[in-house]
Amino acid sequence: MLPNKRPRMYHSGETTDMDFVFRTMKTREPQRHLAAVGVSLGGNALLKWLGEHASENLLSAGRVDFRAVRFRARIEASGIAYRTFYLKNFLNTLIPKAIRCAETFPEAAARIDVEGTRHCTTFWTFDDYATGPLHGFKDARDYYTRCSSIHFVDKITAPTLCISAADDITV
């Protein structure tokens, strides 16, 4: 895995990498129909991208396993085993990345609360101390609000299948 060359981390509203890949593929294979599948955070990003670029017809279709809207809250409210094995292990990969970003890039160090990030035990606190501020959001609430695909789905024109479990929490 190569380290980032810019003070950025992936997040649910980040669509520039996806845009680059889709445009590159379409340029190389202009006659080929392209479709994309997104799951969880990637599903939110795909829906957001489809809404942002609805008039460009780069993709013929999209499929989203859409559990991202309240996934964070569900994990944090789940049983101890799930929180321990999923949330803790995932945060154990995210926290060092955020700290390394702050140590590598002075502009990231000015935004990320490194001490707060070191002690994060939930996605919300991680996004409040690191993800949100690093990417220009006021805090975690601002990040989740502005990155939610719910603000983009009404603009999507490509055929899109969204799949959600019956017991998923909806907004």
Q: State mean pLDDT (0 to 100 scale).
A: 86
Which class of secondary structure composition applies to the elements? mainly alpha
What share of the residues does DSSP label as strand, in percent? 5-15%
Q: What oligomeric assembly is this protein in?
A: single chain
In angstroms, what separates the terminal alpha carbons? 35 Å
User: Number of DSSP strands?
Assistant: 3
> Helical element count?
8
The H/E string reads HEHEHHHHHHE
Radius of gyration: 17 Å
Helix content: 40-55%
Principal-axis shape equals: globular
Number of domains: 2
Strand order, sheet with most strands:
1-2-3
Task: Please outline the major beta sheet.
Answer: 3 strands, parallel
Q: Which stretches are low in confidence, meaning pLDDT under 50 for 5 or more residues running?
A: none
Write structural notes for this entry.
The chain has 171 residues and is mainly α. The protein folds into two domains: 12-69 and 148-171, no CATH class; 72-147, no CATH class. 50% of the residues lie in helices and 8% in strands. The protein contains eight helices and three strands; from the N terminus they run H-E-H-E-H-H-H-H-H-H-E. A three-stranded parallel beta sheet has the order 1-2-3, with helices on one face. Strand 1, helix 2 and strand 2 form a beta-alpha-beta unit. The N and C termini lie far apart (35 Å). The model has no long low-confidence stretch (mean pLDDT 86).
